[in-house]
Structure to design on (476 residues):
């Protein structure tokens, strides 16, 4: 990760910093002031966070305004880590530190032995450097092998070998928390942290200092501690010890998107399916994004799925990327100029995401069948939503007159359109799907037409024959 250089007009010594009128603030005061400033200006406070405006974000804002450390409780894939990372944007863009300090001492109030000695020697000539907000954030995934030394610190044998006395505080190698002094420390999946390690955080949250082995060392830390946890893990696989829970000022529950529109926005934002995107350079029409969003919600609500484990937002993202990748594969094999995802690409979703879902024991062996059923249901629901008010009788009549259409994962859009010929009412169909008839590629037209055919089949107005390498739609 690279960071931009600090502006050249910022003070470089303690004397210059004082003369500039700089006011020292704690991290929590800094976050509070910047949050209030954004509120008063009507600016976005948590960019990229979708579906939490009326539920989660007000609680987070109250916690920040109250100066509370907080725990985010939620099932996997609910955006807990993303939310924590957006809090970093509420920090000042640049903050002064004593140049070379391992724990980011403020030049006005140095606390470590090295910086206090340097301040006494240099006075107003104490060198000052500037740290960007992104370097004031540290994140740690709690795992059973995390040690107190990782989080707090330990004796550094190399410093001892260099000749320092063992009791010298400067022989300490600082851990993650003190190295993020005057910043934000995030611990993901806190219940997975061994209880004896959680004890080491008690002083950080209450007394705001650290203790390293038997050293007479008191470093008043200035940090915001944010932790995440899964409610299931919170009570079963691991737990947050009671004294530590008591020291967190706020507990905030997250959730999956409550509205379909929020689910759609999450998929569109996270899947990165856009024209010209280097990762997946394919078009994913809006109606297919809606199918994937509805599919995700159906899986999440299905009684065949273990609700305690949840269905992550990454489920929908992976599904969208898989569908787009299927379109890219078709274009590469068949020579299509522009890859556009279609209904024929949806079956690729099931094997790709099956491992992301925990099923009830009674459904063992039926996992793929359950997902396929829910996917068909999502297509039917989207068809009713998007094309329920469109008269498709002329299209059905074309099939009643003997027309058939062959499509499939490796059938180019031009072949599908040529196979059917002139399609009555195609313009209205594409308009209903938000596809501009005057600017569509063959792929977009084929995507809209194929969606209509699948919907008509699911509503029992057309027949469908699934062959090994193609699909044939015809009259019932």
């Amino acid at each position: 990760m690279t960071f931009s250089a600090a502006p050249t007009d910022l003070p470089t010594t303690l004397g210059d910093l004082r003369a500039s009128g700089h006011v020292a603030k704690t991290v929590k005061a800094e976050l509070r002031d910047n949050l209030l400033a954004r509120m008063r200006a009507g600016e976005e406070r948590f960019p990229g966070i979708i579906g939490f405006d009326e539920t989660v974000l007000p609680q987070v804002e109250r916690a920040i305004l109250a100066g509370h450390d907080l725990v985010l409780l939620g099932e996997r894939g609910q955006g807990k880590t993303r939310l924590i990372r957006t809090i970093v944007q509420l920090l000042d863009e640049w903050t002064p530190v004593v140049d070379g300090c391992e724990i980011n001492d403020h030049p006005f109030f140095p606390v470590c032995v090295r910086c206090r000695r340097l301040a006494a020697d240099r006075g107003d000539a104490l060198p000052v450097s500037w740290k960007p907000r992104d370097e004031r954030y540290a994140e740690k995934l709690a795992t059973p092998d995390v040690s107190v030394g990782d989080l707090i610190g330990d004796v550094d044998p190399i410093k001892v070998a260099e000749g320092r006395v063992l009791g010298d505080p400067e022989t300490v190698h600082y851990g993650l928390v003190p190295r993020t002094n005057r910043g934000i420390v995030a611990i993901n999946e806190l219940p997975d942290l061994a209880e004896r390690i959680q004890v080491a955080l008690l002083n950080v949250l209450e007394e705001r200092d650290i203790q390293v082995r038997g050293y007479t060392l008191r470093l008043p830390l200035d940090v915001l501690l944010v932790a995440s946890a899964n409610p299931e893990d919170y009570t079963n696989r691991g737990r947050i010890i009671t004294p530590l829970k008591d020291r967190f000022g706020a507990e905030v529950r997250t959730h999956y998107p409550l509205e379909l529109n929020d689910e759609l926005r999450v998929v569109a934002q996270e899947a990165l399916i856009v024209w010209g995107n280097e990762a997946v350079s394919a078009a994913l029409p809006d109606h297919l994004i809606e199918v994937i969003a509805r599919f995700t919600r159906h899986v999440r609500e299905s009684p065949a799925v273990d609700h305690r484990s949840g269905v992550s937002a990454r489920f929908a993202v992976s599904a969208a990327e898989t569908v787009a990748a299927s379109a890219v594969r078709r274009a590469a094999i068949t020579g299509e100029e522009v890859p556009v995802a279609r209904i024929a690409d949806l079956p690729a979703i099931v094997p790709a995401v099956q491992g992301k879902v925990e099923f009830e024991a009674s459904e063992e062996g039926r996992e793929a069948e359950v997902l396929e059923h829910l996917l068909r249901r999502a297509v039917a629901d989207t068809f009713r939503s998007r094309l329920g008010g469109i008269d498709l009788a002329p299209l059905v009549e074309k099939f009643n007159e003997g027309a058939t259409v062959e499509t499939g994962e490796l059938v180019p859009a031009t072949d599908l359109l040529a196979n059917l010929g002139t399609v009555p009412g195609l313009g209205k169909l594409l308009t209903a799907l938000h596809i501009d008839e005057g600017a569509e590629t063959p792929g977009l037209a084929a995507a809209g037409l194929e969606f209509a055919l699948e919907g008509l089949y699911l509503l029992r107005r057309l027949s469908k024959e699934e062959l090994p390498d193609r699909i044939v739609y015809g009259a019932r």
Q: What stands out?
A: The chain has a mean pLDDT of 88. The chain has two domains: 14-253, 260-474. The domain at 14-253 is CATH 3.40.50.300 (Rossmann fold). The longest strand covers residues 223-229.
